[in-house]
Amino acid sequence: SDLAAAAVVAASTNYQLWGGLMVAYSIAAIFGWLGLYLYLAQGRAEATALGGMLITVLGTVLLLPGFGVWSFAAPVAGQLYLQGNNEAMTVYQAITNSPGLIVAPASLPVLLVGLVLFSVAVWRDNTLPKAVMVVLVITTVLEGPFLPGLGLIMNSVIRAGASLWLAYSIWQQATTRRANESATFNQVVTR
């Protein structure tokens, strides 16, 4: 039956690993958006970056209830169903149809608006690679129902790579900025 197939998937180690990684990624993403804002706030695009950060964090937070249910409730319901508790998947379906999870689909358009604002801020700031924002926007658009199975995994790997590229670029620019400020300070002091 469909419920038995869903229970097998939900109880699998891969499903539990995916759910845990999505929760961890979402939490790390919130800190990443804050870091991107803090970097961009020092340049010409502070207001746009602030809007990008607030809206992108909101979009990420809208995902967390769904990831929590999929990560923690689904595996338990799947295991209970496979052990003979026929009501377990019915309870799980009731949870996934609850008003608290209705906000999850709204996360995609909210995330896209925030990422577009962040992209505009990166373009205006002109110190970070613009292509990384294009990759983040495209991988966000492709997320969800458009990419099943392996495509979803590859999309997530590409997004993680783009996020690391952005973090490295920020670190590199901040290091260069500090070195320039230190050299300027040393020149002023030695005069």
Rounded mean pLDDT is 86
Label the structural class.
Answer: mainly alpha
In this structure, how is the largest beta sheet organized? none
Radius of gyration: 21 Å
Count of discrete alpha- or pi-helical segments spanning 4 or more residues: 7
Uncertain runs are none
Distance, first to last CA = 82 Å
Helix content, binned percent: over 70%
Question: What is the approximate shape?
Answer: elongated
What percent strand? under 5%
Secondary-structure element pattern, one letter each: HHHHHHH
Overview of the structural elements:
The chain has 191 residues and is mainly alpha-helical. It contains seven helices and no strands. Helix 1 crosses helix 3, helix 2 packs antiparallel against helix 3 and helix 6 runs antiparallel to helix 7.
What does the secondary structure layout of this molecule look like, with pairings?
Layout (H helix, E strand, L loop, with lengths): L1 H10 L1 H28 L5 H37 L5 H9 L10 H19 L4 H13 L6 H42 L1
Helix pairs in contact: 1-3, 2-3, 3-4, 3-5, 5-6, 6-7
Q: What attributes does this structure have?
A:
191 residues, mainly alpha, 7 helices, 83% helix
Q: What would a concise description of this structure say?
A:
The protein is 83% helix and 0% strand.
